[in-house]
Amino acid sequence: MSYDPNNIFAKILRGDLPCTKVFEDDHTLAFMDIMPQAKGHVLVLPKLASQSLLDAEPAMFSALFATVQKLARAVKTGMEADGIVVTQFNGAAAGQTVFHLHVHIIPRWDGVALRRHSGTMEDADVLKAHAAKIVAAL
Ligand code: AMP
Fold this sequence. Notes:
This protein is an alpha+beta fold. The protein contains three helices and five strands. The longest helix has 18 residues, at 61-78. The relative contact order is 0.24. A hairpin with a 3-residue loop joins strand 1 and strand 2 (28-32).
């Protein structure tokens, strides 16, 4: 299977579909996950096209993980989280559902269970409110 330029995240990167953006630079884009596993669940994408980690260009990893670290810190502070989970799925068998490389940043609180992956759609106003807290902490 080759990279599909019409996958959902490619459309978001082109501006053809909306997202609740929290950060953008020359190489990366970060926005709220529409079906968050926890309040403040953010996705970080490289702008360079690849399906997953396995076919990605390593030269962009420093830019990608600089943004992952920046957002992990902002999500922890902005959402007052006790910890941060960083996950990344490669292939449908591993749980990947959108085939443009992305990294999940998921805040955790002591005693609060994670919601199901790709479970329930969150209200747009709730996503905006969480995004505002994260942006304020950047
Ligand atoms: P994965 O299963 O790792 O490929 O993750 C895809 C993630 O993208 C899931 O957590 C979905 O909730 C999320 N998602 C799917 N469509 C959108 C969208 N239009 N905007 C924001 N997040 C999305």
